[in-house]
Amino acid sequence: MRAIGIKGGKGPATNLFIDQIAKPTAAEGQAIVKIRAFGLNRMDLLQREGLYPLPPQAPPTMGVEFSGVIESFGPDGHEDFNIGDEVLGLAYGGAYAEYISVSTHMLVHKPQELSWEESAGVPETWITASQALFLIGEFQSGQSVLWHAGASSVSISGIQLAKAAGAKAIYATAGSQEKIDFLEKELGVTKAFNYKTQDWAAEIQSATSGAGVDVIVDFIGATYFQGNLDVAARDSRIVLLGLMGGGKLPEGVNIAPLLYKRVRIEGSTLRSRDLEYQRKLRDTLVEHALPQFCDGTFKVFVEKVFPFEKIEEAHKLLESNTTKGKIICVFE
Which member of 10, 124, 139, 267 has the greatest number of CB atoms within 10 A? Predict the structure, then answer.
């Protein structure tokens, strides 16, 4: 079958090529899905560069979220799924290919209201956002939230989840006026701040009259660490999901707010979680988000769709940090 490989095992987007590999087989509790579309994620860029620690279950082929049609099953345990069902799913890897073997615990029946492209943009982003907001951030109705990288797919999902769950205020950061306008006018955040032209931490302190924010979801890391502590409310939670700004703190960071504000910081990577943990997150998505995809309350924002053969171009667009929403590749 066709799959995306990396010349030399790692490197820039120009190293991506269409390879021929063996079609996977389904183990116990797994299904073989013929993929119609798959979503790109920032971890894919890191994996391509050889900088992402893969879980032991992951195959060499990139890609963790997809939509497609069930072709067959392994022995036993395929829940309420049947051959021919249209599904979306999350995997440890292998979605950049025509077929994937995946646990049925990580499959979801595809809503008819969503296209193949939209469906492929749901699993990783919406499950990550749900985990960050509810499981780790312990968000409650009436609290405030700050989403960094506000126009990223995870933050776009998280903003919608927070609104639906009764957030009293939602703040976001982004790097262009176009993204600021999108966040405020399209998604309806309380206020978005341009980190290139504004001191976002000072602006949030002013907007909250010094009270700060209850839940902060951060993808940046070191360069935002002090700002996050400064805007954290008392008894707040900071959820660290990425290190786009580095992992080593600059000199002079004042960690005192950790103590006197009783701030809790927790990092998380979804891909390294065990199957049972991911299944629980899948069930949370089905219970709380799926109905709102069907009635149009939640939207999957797709920035651009590429044919499978244009994977190099798709990776380069993701690397540009100019997108608002998902980049999807399709098999035509």
Answer: 124
